[in-house]
Amino acid sequence: MDYHTPAIIKKGLIVVFVSLGCTASAIGKNTTPFLPAVAVVPLKPTETQQAAGKYVTQYLLKNHYRKVPVNDSLSQQIFGRYLEHLDGSKSYFLAGEVSALKKFYGNRIDDEFLQGKTTSGFAVYNQFLRRAKEKMRFMKATADTVRFNFSRQESLDLDRKNDPWPADRKELQALWKKELKYQWLNMKYSEGNDKSIRTELSKTFANRLKLLNQQKPDDALQAYMYAVTTSFDPHTGYFSPDEFENFQIDLSRSLEGIGARLQMESEYTVVNEVIPGGPAFRSNLLKKSDKIIGVGQGAGGEIIDVRGWRINDVVKLIRGKKGTSVRLKIYPASQGGRGPAKIVRLLRDKVDLQEQAARKSIIERERHKIGVITIPSFYLDFEGQKLNVNNYNSTTRDVSRILGELGNAGVDAVIVDLRDNGGGSLEEAVNVTGLFIPTGPVVQISNSSGGKMVLRDEDRRVLYNGPIAVLVNRYSASASEIFAAAIQDYGRGVIIGERTFGKGTVQSLVKLNRPFSFLSKQTELGQLKLTVAKFYRISGGSTQHKGVSPDISIPSLIDTAAIGEDTYTSSLPWSTISKTFYRPVSAISQNEIGRLRQSYQTGIIKDRTSREYVRDLGILNRIRKRKTVSLSEAAFKAENEELKRIEKRWMNEDDSLKEKSYYDFMLNRSADIMNDLIGIKKSGQAGSPARRMLSLN
């Protein structure tokens, strides 16, 4: 993936059950008493890590797009973000302890930041490690002996972001017991569970306690650096030398595995990107934002619980030889992370560049043929292009060929499907846009000093000038948003689907190296992914934060409340710059879009399948919006069965194009809309601009 237009970038690389390092006496004497102390050898930053901290500070202050004043406000932001990731469930610290930590460290961080120090970060991290160990001991002991009453009417708050920390030990332990009960129910109704729940839970907590005892300074540094860098924006991040090695392997896409990029969010390993052309992509079994909670080898190997594991260790467990299989136990993102868990089996393989290529299909409506061009990513073989290799991989080349084939097939309209397309090559996004417009600007880029660059389509040829639609969803990001925005601004086609992700920023990788010294053998300090610029539409508005809004809204089953740039608390704001000169082609008018929208809404009411889709989506959203989950077995079972029913009905896992055109609600309705548009165009006068737009060059 091109680093100037990455896809949806990770929220963090944190192992939740990690550590923090100061003694209780350093906090203050008049605070709520801490829970019984657990012996912890405080983690301390190494000399290399201290040097890395100084370089990170320098680059953030000098080169980041956002110029953040270093004061107590920034200090409190970093502290708050740090606690949120260490204890987002508010199930480790007591309220008095948090108050004391904030009072002691909350306003020190900015001063330490200017000096490149991580003292407060390691101190808080070590203190958290004490609490995490205590919780795991409690959970294991309780799992070994507890007898739950599953008919009791009680619930667990799954979203404790706005809840207070427990006031005392009694309240804290009551919360822990509810968490354990929830995990018990989830295991009971999860796929692949044929073992004793008590035994498995006890083993899980014992393993997590073991992981806590093996924490290293790098774990503390990564957790703290995440809080620091994401206080500037969510896509800026620090990679230690070891982490960056894994990151490079992901980028090269050469190592045999499942073809997915992972990240850590709280205690979970989360799918950040399903790489087009990889095994996960081809299987259609793994989706963005799925939470991986277990990994098993082969068809019958034990599934190891990986909650709380380091990201590098999870990656090593998932990778393996080509042709071997791995089983992942996941919480599907489609279910709002509520469970039940399911098992997916993937065959390890290399990423096949041919599999990520744009592909075509044809949907027939009445007497009309509608071509569909699915673009999983905006790909480009930079090396092949540089060496002028024949037939190097290029989105523009493939789409050009497909448009010719669709023209020969006599299609009446084209849908460009950019759903789940997280971006890629900026150059390709511009060039593909050029296939549909005569010539002109496509995107503007603004740097931190106010400088502006306009990227243009310089080719006056239009390969296809018939009716087009661009189909997008919440996962359409970066380069996809640039293409959709340009088509919309030129009035070239209709945008269908839901509001896109809203990633309108540009990142650059900076290698942190210090001068060679005989006193220090290690010169490599890691890498910093730094936000350095922002994308703007040719009409002047940013694609950042707000994304691209569709002309006709068709909601997907994605949990849009949890996905998107606007869900990050530190995302850069939407803004505007002066628009650049361009000539709209006005191939579709607002009046025509209004007629299409009205026809679509009428069709939803009349069509049985559409009514069922809207009904089930409403049920799914109501379940997602609930902050609590019932711990009564009857209610828990009923909700899980409803989730499974909806998934089976609308999330068919057969990804063949023929089948997809049958069950894919968004694509089917888009085809209906384009069928209506063809009718509108044909009803115009012969020889009018609208009529001529039906031709293929």
Automatic annotation (TrEMBL):
Keywords: Hydrolase, Protease, Serine protease. One of its GO terms (biological process) is signal transduction. GO terms for cellular component: outer membrane-bounded periplasmic space. PROSITE patterns: PDZ (PS50106). Residues 248-319 form the PDZ domain. GO terms for molecular function: serine-type endopeptidase activity. It comes from the Bacteria. InterPro entries: ClpP/crotonase-like_dom_sf (IPR029045), PDZ (IPR001478), PDZ_sf (IPR036034), Peptidase_S41A (IPR004447), Tail-specific_protease (IPR005151), Tail_Prtase_C (IPR020992), TSP_N (IPR040573). Its EC number is 3.4.21.102. Belongs to the peptidase S41A family. PANTHER family: CARBOXYL-TERMINAL-PROCESSING PEPTIDASE 3, CHLOROPLASTIC, TAIL-SPECIFIC PROTEASE. This is Carboxyl-terminal protease. It comes from Chlorobium limicola (strain DSM 245 / NBRC 103803 / 6330).
